Structure prediction request, 157 residues.
Amino acid sequence: MVNKKKEELIEELKELRIQKEMTYQQIADETERIGCPVSLSTIKLVFSDKRNHNHDYNTILKPIADVLSPPNVDDDLDTKTLQTRLELKEEIIKQYQERLENKEKKHKDRELFYMNLIEHLQAEISFKNEQIKHHNEAMDRKDATLKDLYSRLLDKT
Prediction:
């Protein structure tokens, strides 16, 4: 969905570039002037027909859009471009929210797994403690029995 929105934005930027009769070099110069330089080769790639729309929005597409469609201009194509940019940003935000929700769900699932594991291990420790207690009691009885047998044996001699 993001690439579709980027594709729409790039098509609108192509129309704006033609409408404003700006060269790639002029766009590159203007992006540098506004403090977000985009190289001439990158600008050529954005406007090429290779259909690669995987350009970073913040560092490449936004500066080009800012040059071709400054916020203070209010004609139809500029408004449409700004709307597409807004939709693209909203789609990116939506994807980030979905990622965050997935990560939170995984975190909660992992936390539940570890809580269950801790509970299981605590039960196992309690069981082992009971076994040790019974074993120690049996050893104490055995020691008492041996002590009693030794004392009887020594008394008979």
